[in-house]
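Repro case for the chain-ordering regression, as requested:
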Amino acid sequence: MWEKLLRLDRRWIFVLVALSVLIPLLRPLGLPMRTTEPVLNLYTYIDTLKPHDKAVILVTDFDPSTMPELLPMAEAIMRHCFARKIPLILYGGMYPTFVGMAKMALSRVLPDFPDVKYGEDYVFLGYIPGTSLIILSMGESISKTFGNDYYGNKLDSLPLMQRVKNYDQVALVIDLSGSGTPVWWIIYGYQRYGVRVGCGTTAVSAAQYYPYLQTGQFVGMLGGLKGAAEYETLIERAGIPPGRKTASIGMDAQSIVHLMLIFLIILGNIGYFIVRRKR
Amino acid sequence: MRRTGPLVVAFIMGFAMIFQYFIPHPLSQKFYEIMVQQWLIIISIFLYLFGLRSFTLYHYHKVRRKKEGWYFSLIALLAALITVIIGFGTRRGPLFDKIYDYILAPLQATMFSLLAFFIASAAYRAFRARNLEATLLLVTATIVMLGRVPFGAFMWHKLPDVVEWILKYPNMAAQRGILIGVGLGMIATSMKIILGIERSYLGGE
Amino acid sequence: MLLYLLFVSPPVNVHAYDTPDDAGGSITVEWSPPPGVEVKFYEVYRSCEGGPYEFIGKFIGSLHSYVDKGLEDGKKYTYRIRLIDVNGDTSEFSMPSSPAVPSPQWFKKGKLNLFIAVVLYFGFLIFFVQSAKTGKRLFIRRIAGLDALDEAVGRATEMGRPILYVPGLGTMGDVATIASVNILKPVAKKAAEYETPIIVPNRDPIVMTVAQQVVKEAYLEAGRPDAYREDNVFYLTDSQFAYAAGVDGIMMRERPATNLFMGMFYAESLILAETGNMTGAIQIAGTDAVAQLPFFIAACDYTIIGEELYAASAYLSQDPKLVGSLKAQDLGKAILMFLLLLGSILSLCNIPLILNFFRTL
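-- result from build under test --
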């Protein structure tokens, strides 16, 4: 019996994984979410900004492969800014394939905020080549750096951009990234121009940013799907429409999959020891 | 002679790049700019033509000889052609965006998500407490997996802190050890290439 | 008292000097805040050759130095600075700095320690390679993964199925890829001798060109140039997950009996290795990507870890010159370990001697 179990066709395991992902997605368990300090710090920083005053720049520095972890972060932060009337500059990232992510987030959030006006409450900046040089150049003038917005409008013609010249009128830059770009914002944005920086990153990369959190170079950080889920919980508690809460639903799935994995590993080991003893 | 040419280039350029690193003078900066930022980019772009040639020939031969799975090759050829035509034809207009949103994005995400399934089957098959080291690995992995999800904190509220400690200290120490070894190995390999001791990358002795 | 409230004192100790270790065209300015003033911003002004002062930038109050770039070498520049305090009041200008002249340097003094280390390491390398040439045999420990290469090629031959060689996602600039190409040579040669096809899908066109050359050469050396097929060493795609999908497809269709993954790998490592495990192939992986090692260890029969991969060409060829270079590497590592230990002990005793030596600017 155990021999057979050990040689189980892996497709049965795939079915188990699929079910442990699917069932919590269809019927969320709503396991309580404990918020961690880096997430709470970022949330509080944004939450205490004055409405219609300084802007927040949100950067989507990721492509579809890391979308499941990072896109919910973009949506939750956008919702937070729109609800609190904090001017938002959405910047589609430093590489050409990233801008689609910003667009996708926008199309999911906008229907819940019908009174938000383009050009006054938010602006969408597209791709321009230059990577880290862009960060430096934005410190002098954002509209000179980009010229036009994503839709081709002159930035100088938009009321929000007439107020926000450079980092002096920006309260926070949040870089959502699966690579090393958040550190560029610290080096070129914070050290040089003093603009505050926060970041969101994949669970794999989160560990490498802890030193910057400790020194205060990052205001806060969202790490992986868990960070996104915590942010969703925080805005929901504040009465802001959280949308489909894809990250929180995903967390239930992640809990169950992790448990299932542990169960499988234990089962595999029991089988291994029984079979070994028999021999 | 066919071998000596590349070896001489590797020797001269290798040493030039090492010295360049230690010389801040504008002449040295200019050298770096021309060699790395211009030549290297130009050469690598031309090599993409080789890639394109190889891609086209490989799939063309497969389709022509009707080798197993030849229709996939046909799809690959057509997809490449259509994307190029739409990209140039519409100057990245809405149709190009649709290819991104509805084909590229889901395909990339699908391949990435396969990982979840494969991790499960690999863990079931290979994660065994064979000896002390493997047992330690097993226990640590279980703690980290639990501590990273809400269910772990639900079981024991201190678990996330334990995970934090594991990531911050033992994990970091091991990573650094490997990284130092890798770093020294990299320097040695580079030096061997510069000095012409290592030459298998040229195709042989 | 009233005067003090009306006039904010300007910054003090304004000092300008040619930025050291640079390509010229730049001056570093340093200043200190006046005592008892809480500074919000500093405004820096510059004058060239005694001309009028121009505004060059506004900086946050915690900044006490600025590197002014884009200047002309050989000209005299002076600086003065004023501050804006937390109440929004602007101070008078500071005393102008003494003039500074930007100029380029020929050596980065801050990197002297690194230069010494490089020269020393080079010395070891040449010494050990020379002493190896005299015929002294050096011990090299067994690396199971590399020993298994022969067996893996042999198995594919017995089963009459091809060998799949995946050189990873790296470019020729990555040492792991160079090491991978070094392993490809003997593997391809053996495959040519046994008349077993070897398939090499590539992600980088430069790596592809090199791999084609290496495999062709291997077939030539094995005396089978006629058996070499260019179609078997080909370009797949440069997109990471499309590459993984493509290689998986090859595994499912061609059913290679042996899969070798050598080089740089990222998140696709397990997608490749687990698919290979499904098709029942014997698998050997080698990479220096630390985060991917656990996946390869779980799904492959043998894993070559980090440095072992770099040592592969020495190990496989047993060329005394290459084996000698491993010895130099070991000595380098021993010295570094000793210095790390010494540095840790000394810093525990609050003596930052070693730490300062390792610091580069």
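Ordering looks correct now. Helices of chain B lie at 4-22, 26-64, 70-89, 94-126, 132-147, 150-155, 159-168, 170-195.
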